[in-house]
Amino acid sequence: EVHLAEAGGGLVQPGGSLRLSCAASGFTFSNYDMHWVRQVTGKGLEWVSAISTTGDTYYPDSVKGRFTVSRENAKSSLYLQMNSLRAGDTAVYFCVRDRGRGLYDYWGQGILVTVSS
Amino acid sequence: ENVLTQSPGTLSLSPGDNATLSCRASQSVISSYLAWYQQSPGQAPRLLIFGTSNRATGIPDRFSGSGSGTDFTLTISRLEPEDFAVYYCQQYLTSPITFGLGTRLEIK
């Protein structure tokens, strides 16, 4: 059974940094592109980053230059390094598996990141 | 970016009714790479429909998708209590991947 489990969320001050991790199981992690998607409480979904099987990375303009996605296939793990955090980055962050071309077939339960002083 | 507009924002219906949810894109969705997700309270989204009209694994045939170009529809027949949730459309393949703001399906 496919399982994705996020960790590393919490409260951080504006301008601070946080590193999220996602532990994957139940599938061959190295064979899939992986993404991060976030959701402001009670609001819609926003794509945050993507990493291909070959390590190519992609970001929307809203986080480009501040967030860095990486993966460690030997540990079936996905990471999101978030720097220069802003109040607008406060959200639940989901780790998601890309079935192909950005279609998300499995989601983690999400982890809350709160940016506040 | 391709902006997706969902309507209505909230839909109030009763179990047994049929629901029609709309998703309109600001640009044509390439090759119908349009998906629908269901999100129940406190849960992660779940893939329902991909490629405009293909049901994901385990999704009952009460759920159907249609459309092309910029106009897409999710139809839910014979609403069950567990169907009352928020539904999001998504266009994929084209970067940045974008979602609509959702339609909340609530019990009347």
Short structural description:
The complex is a heterodimer of chains A (about 120) and B (about 110). Chain A is mostly beta strands and about 120 residues long.
Number of strands of chain B: 11
Order of helices and strands of chain A: EEEEEEEEEEE
Radius of gyration of chain A equals 13 Å
Instruction: Describe the largest sheet of chain A.
Output: 7 strands, mixed
Give the class of chain A from helix and strand content and strand pairing. Answer: mainly beta
The biggest sheet of chain B amounts to: 7 strands, mixed
Helical region count of chain A? 0
State mean pLDDT of chain B (0 to 100 scale). 95
State the helicity of chain B in percent bands: under 10%
- Average of per-residue pLDDT values of chain A: 96
Strand content of chain A: over 45%
| Uncertain residue ranges of chain B | none
Q: Tell me the radius of gyration of chain B.
A: 13 Å
Give unreliable regions of chain A as ranges: none
Helix count of chain B?
A: 0
**So what's the overall shape of chain B?**
globular
Task: Report what the structure shows.
- The complex is a heterodimer of chains A (117) and B (108).
- The N and C termini of chain A lie far apart (40 Å).
- In chain A, strands 2, 4, 5, 6, 9, 10 and 11 form a seven-stranded mixed beta sheet that branches.
- Chain A has 117 residues and is mostly beta strands.
- Chain A has strands spanning 3-7, 10-12, 18-25, 34-39, 45-51, 57-58, 67-72, 77-82, 91-100, 103-107, 111-115.
- Chain A contains no helices and eleven strands.
- Chain B has 108 residues and is mostly beta strands.
- In chain B, 0% of the residues lie in helices and 49% in strands.
- Chain B contains no helices and eleven strands.
- Chain B is globular, with a radius of gyration of 13 Å.
- The N and C termini of chain B lie far apart (35 Å).
- Chain A binds chain B through residues 35, 43-47, 50, 58, 60-61, 94, 99, 101-105, 107-110, and chain B through 33, 35, 37, 43-47, 50, 56, 88, 90, 92-93, 95-102.
